[in-house]
Amino acid sequence: MSGSVMLLAADAHTPSQGVSYLVTALYIVAFGMFIYGLSGLTGPKTAVRGNWIAAVGMGVAVVATLISVYNNGSNGDDGETVGVPTINWILIAAGLIIGVALGIPPALKTKMTAMPQLVALFNGVGGGTVALIAWSEFIETSGFSDFHGTEPASPLVIGSLIAAIIGSISFWGSLVAFSKLQEILPKGLEKFFVGNAKVFQVANIALLALSVGIAIFLGVQATDGGGASTWWIVGLLIAAGVMGLFVVFPIGGADMPVVISLLNAMTGLSAAAAGIALDNTALIVAGMIVGASGSILTNLMATAMNRSIPAIVFGSFGGGDAGGAVGPGGDQGTVKATSAADAAIQMAYAGQVIVVPGYGLAVAQAQHAVKDMASILESKGVEVKYAIHPVAGRMPGHMNVLLAEADVEYDSMKEMDDINGEFSRTDVTIVIGANDVTNPAARNDPSSPIHGMPILNVDQSRSVIVLKRSMSSGYAGIENPLFFADQTSMLFGDAKKSVGAVIEELKAL
């Protein structure tokens, strides 16, 4: 959606009646394709088709807007353009070409492991675009002076100011999320913000008050005096942008999937506000679809972590991996290492094996190897299932997409609520790169930062095999007692290589 926001924004005036009917009809078609495409994203088998349908729908909306713009200046009584700015078609074409040139290559080349970063970046671009639209409307109307004396303030004024605040927060917040996920943010800086989270909470309240105060001032100026200095809108964008930075900087890595979803919802709502300002139906509907679906997803993910959205935004935990060594775990016990041969024997003679994928599987690109391993086990009469935690990985549905890419049957992927009752009846659970979502401290230790977060009940299995590179903690930055449990053994190394070694041992049995 973000790549088409600026084009949709061009339709701020009413075309002739005949063209209006055509544009409305095309918009209705586009809205239907948005909704139908979104419904296809509920499962891996229909997700690609749904994505294409929604993309074509956005193309229809863009064409409708261009038709409207082309016929925009012929509705005056004297046959001349009425209050419509000159349309620079060369600039519009250049924007389309640049957008395509910048958007397609990363979408094609980005690996699934880096998809969360790409989503965060593209989402940020959408919010930034909306903020620029608000700024351009301020300039085009001479500081909203065109609406001097109107009561109440024009929807353009109110919508633009809301879009400026939310869009700027979303843009800068998404850039921070991208830098955290890409691990280019200096660890010292990240720890500083996490350690001083309460200080930045106070700063955010002050920045929010400042942003709202400036917006109110500009709204009053539009109705009473008009013609506010451009520095006011710049100050608004800066205050909201700094707030976006300060909101996301202190949030721990364990909460990043929820943050991405929340920022996505904010971008949609800012686009809807811009649509209200520009009287563009397509922008309103598209923005509300993104905002509503993103809000629902954010709430579902927060519920899956047994945390409220304010608790995630205003209270953080987790600052990235903290290295650890193989060996004694203090009060936890002692880690037991295993070999590929022992792991293969355990699984080959099991009745049921559950695979728990995590971000380590994504990093190693081990999904195809895991599928091959499962196929060999199934040929030996072993039932294989996949346990998917709602916040496993770095974005919603990350593990589902990875496994679907390896042609794992959708019916084999079990959500947390559906699979948790199976672990007590499971002979072997193999955890591949997952950490926090399998941590029994969330269930047993009231002092743990993740206490109360629903987890996969891996520790209830008869035997657990954990594939990890080292004893480093997960993204929440806390130790996992599962690794020291009596029934747990650790297979250290790159996940793809370890699974490959297990496959060779299985073939030899």
Automatic annotation (TrEMBL):
<feature type="transmembrane region" description="Helical">
    <location>
        <begin position="116"/>
        <end position="136"/>
    </location>
</feature>
<feature type="transmembrane region" description="Helical">
    <location>
        <begin position="82"/>
        <end position="104"/>
    </location>
</feature>
<dbReference type="InterPro" id="IPR034300">
    <property type="entry name" value="PNTB-like"/>
</dbReference>
<keyword id="KW-1133">Transmembrane helix</keyword>
<keyword id="KW-0520">NAD</keyword>
<comment type="similarity">
    <text>Belongs to the PNT beta subunit family.</text>
</comment>
<comment type="function">
    <text>The transhydrogenation between NADH and NADP is coupled to respiration and ATP hydrolysis and functions as a proton pump across the membrane.</text>
</comment>
<keyword id="KW-1003">Cell membrane</keyword>
<keyword id="KW-1278">Translocase</keyword>
<dbReference type="InterPro" id="IPR012136">
    <property type="entry name" value="NADH_DH_b"/>
</dbReference>
<feature type="transmembrane region" description="Helical">
    <location>
        <begin position="50"/>
        <end position="70"/>
    </location>
</feature>
<feature type="transmembrane region" description="Helical">
    <location>
        <begin position="199"/>
        <end position="219"/>
    </location>
</feature>
<keyword id="KW-0997">Cell inner membrane</keyword>
<keyword id="KW-0812">Transmembrane</keyword>
<keyword id="KW-0521">NADP</keyword>
<feature type="domain" description="NADP transhydrogenase beta-like">
    <location>
        <begin position="24"/>
        <end position="504"/>
    </location>
</feature>
<feature type="transmembrane region" description="Helical">
    <location>
        <begin position="283"/>
        <end position="302"/>
    </location>
</feature>
<feature type="transmembrane region" description="Helical">
    <location>
        <begin position="258"/>
        <end position="277"/>
    </location>
</feature>
<dbReference type="Pfam" id="PF02233">
    <property type="entry name" value="PNTB"/>
</dbReference>
<keyword id="KW-0472">Membrane</keyword>
<feature type="transmembrane region" description="Helical">
    <location>
        <begin position="156"/>
        <end position="178"/>
    </location>
</feature>
<dbReference type="InterPro" id="IPR029035">
    <property type="entry name" value="DHS-like_NAD/FAD-binding_dom"/>
</dbReference>
<feature type="transmembrane region" description="Helical">
    <location>
        <begin position="231"/>
        <end position="251"/>
    </location>
</feature>
<feature type="transmembrane region" description="Helical">
    <location>
        <begin position="20"/>
        <end position="38"/>
    </location>
</feature>
<protein>
    <recommendedName>
        <fullName>NAD(P) transhydrogenase subunit beta</fullName>
        <ecNumber>7.1.1.1</ecNumber>
    </recommendedName>
</protein>
